[in-house]
Amino acid sequence: MDQQTQQFVETFAEQSHPDVLEQFDRASLEELVAKHETPFMVLDLEEVDYQYKSLQAALPGVKLFYALKSLSHPELIKRLKSLGSYFDLATIGEVELVESLGIKGDQCIHTHPIKKDKEIKRALEFGCNRFVVDNLEELKKFIPYAGQVELIIRVSFRSQQAVVDLSRKFGCALEELPVIVELAQQNGIEVVGLSFHVGSQSLSPMMQVNAVRSSIAAMKVMNSVKWKFLDIGGSFPVSYQEDVLPIADFCAPVVEALADLPEGVEVFAEPGRFISAPSMIEVISVVGKAKRGARTWYYMDDGVYGGFSGQMFDHASYPIAPLKPFDATGEFLPSVLAGPTCDSIDVIAEDIELPELEIGDILIGKQMGAYTIASATEFNYYPKPKIVVVEDIFDPETEAL
Ligand SMILES: Cc1ncc(COP(=O)(O)O)c(C=O)c1O
Predict the structure, then answer these.
(1) What rounded mean pLDDT belongs to the chain?
(2) Are 183 and 162 in contact (CB under 8 A)?
(3) What whole-number distance in Å separates Cα of residue 347 and Cα of residue 356?
């Protein structure tokens, strides 16, 4: 092969089979594999720091309320508490979890737009008095608690470009705001803020920018309310298979739009995925192997009923690669990665090209902290993967990649 062809082959190979694990310190990964039986997930607390600080730097002055639903591991919550984070709660279970970790109610907001009375009571008993509502029936539930609560009204902004459009299910139309505010005022219930969530894994900041602008306009029109907060929700994206904007670039136009807020209005955000997704990887191994037609099927010891459940519920497709070093210019075979359960839907990757693997080989899935273990099941009586907590598995030289 002449030099030019060789170069082309190498470049092409690099592009089509990028080294998914290049950011990691492979020696640390190998050490973990030697110590723990697969499948297991690795929660990297240094990465929690890194993501939290990056988002805080990109949204100066904004109070970050970590959305527990994306990943509620106590060690992650404790680390965020030590960083000064606030918390976004939605259930009694989440209230009790943060309470058990020494977090105070006034460091939290309760953002579930639909609640049972006992959920309101439990949150209040914990000391959390800020709740989200998005309709009149929900508002009426707070009449007995007038004087004790501060309400934030959630507005719906539909988003086609978010991977998960949350405004389909929750949020009122902007035009409904005056009626909700009026009923609150008639009953002596304090309305203090507006909130929205333009959808999780939002690929462009423009929906958030438009939602900020519309919310500010609504606040200015409804000047009978003493507005204290605008809550811009979650949505901040991470790279799975596709590249996304660096967080500073994603947030810059949002910050610019926030500059028009009336004086004295504080800004909240409720990030989940951005903090939790990059903080966890999953380590799985090949249990079985079969050639079926043109493809080699590898049967792994975890799949979409376990740690990879986000492929079903969160529409995510995780970058995945073998741990053993491979030759990027070598042979790659059309392969299928299947989970262990008896269900045929349990397939992690259908059209993946991989170097030949053997039974016992290890694969690593990246960006697996958000909406993964949170929705994992124990179907077929396979236990959920355990979570190993570490301080740093990233290679300091490539961490910024
Ligand atoms: C009310 C609320 N806040 C925050 C989040 C977290 O969103 P994300 O993971 O996109 O940051 C969600 C996600 O479902 C949510 O429903």
Answers:
(1) 92
(2) no
(3) 18
Residue to mutate, 166, 254, 276, ligand 1, most ligand atoms under 8 Å from C-beta: 166
Model confidence pLDDT, tens digit, residues 57-97: 999 999 999 999 999 999 999 999 999 999 999 999 999 99
User: In angstroms, rounded to a whole number, what is the distance separating the alpha carbons of residues 192 and 110?
Assistant: 14
Domain membership of residue 207 (yes or no) is: yes
Convert the pLDDT of each residue in 250-288 to its tens digit: 999 999 999 999 999 999 999 999 999 999 999 999 999
Length of the chain: 401
Are 122 and 251 within one domain? yes
Nearest atom (ligand 1) to Cα of 90: 1
Whether the CB-CB separation of 25 and 281 falls below 8 Å is answered with no
Tell me what pLDDT residue 15 has.
Answer: 45
Residue 121 amino acid letter: K
| Same domain (yes/no): 188, 205 | yes
Nearest alpha-carbon partner for 49 in 390, 397, 312: 390
Task: Locate the ligand 1 atom nearest the alpha carbon of residue 201 and give its number.
Answer: 10
Ligand 1 contacts CB of residue 110 (under 6 A): no
Q: Which domain holds residue 119?
A: 72-271
**Residue 367 region, left (φ>0) first, then alpha (ψ -120 to 50), else beta?**
left
Q: Are residues 262 and 127 in the same domain?
A: yes
* CA 276–ligand 1 middle distance (angstroms): 12
Q: How far is the CA of 293 from the centre of ligand 1 (A)?
A: 42
